[in-house]
Write a structure and sequence with these properties.
Elements: H1 9-20, E1 24-35, E2 41-51, E3 61-64, E4 67-77, E5 83-91, E6 98-101, E7 104-106, H2 113-125, E8 135-136, E9 152-162, H3 164-168, E10 174-175, E11 184-190, H4 191-197, H5 201-214, H6 217-222
Parallel strand pairs: 4-9
Antiparallel strand pairs: 1-2, 2-3, 4-5, 4-7, 5-6, 5-11, 8-9, 10-11
Amino acid sequence: MPENLLDSHKYNLWKNNLLRSGLDVHRIDELYTRRNGKGEVLFSLLYTDASTPEGDKIPPICFLKGEVVSVLVCFIERVSRQKYLLLVRQRRICDGSPTYEHPAGMLDSESDAAAVAAREVWEETSIEVRKEDLTRLNEAPCFPSTGTSDEAMYFFYYELELTADEIAAYHNQAQGVASDFERITTHVAPFVEGHRLINNSNGILLNYLYLKDVKDWELLKAL
């Protein structure tokens, strides 16, 4: 049986955040909802009639997506110590063009961001990683589009030391879940080259956060 929007984890997470922030929610209209194969809410377009504590009306449209993870996978070549990004290439609705991104995915009804991040890496790259091996870069999620969406992002990274041949083997591999309309191809590139391929702000930010965390000032200057 399809999950009712009002019972879904991401809807209640969003609405409770509104209430904690002092909003007076008068009405929420469900304009459209898409569900996954298990009937769980993936995302929803909502019209919200709500007032702020200052007495103003909040802008009414919300694209409900919930919490999201994004994982930077960095290969380190054993001899040269050169760093490579493992990206995923797929077409996106923003403009229809092929995009290069870090492995990512939505939490849906789950609350363990690290577990979801590890699963997304496996599904999109075939790299098996434990959630304990991931480094989380932000404790509180950040919001990429505060004016129109509740999307809240958690950033992680994972370093893997490999030979040059092992790194090359991960390039141009078909991945993705057909039922989710995913046609994904992996793409391996030297870090700076890979950085320049990314055109979404979350991916660009994740690169900078990673380099700052590992104190790779030389690569940071090269971006």
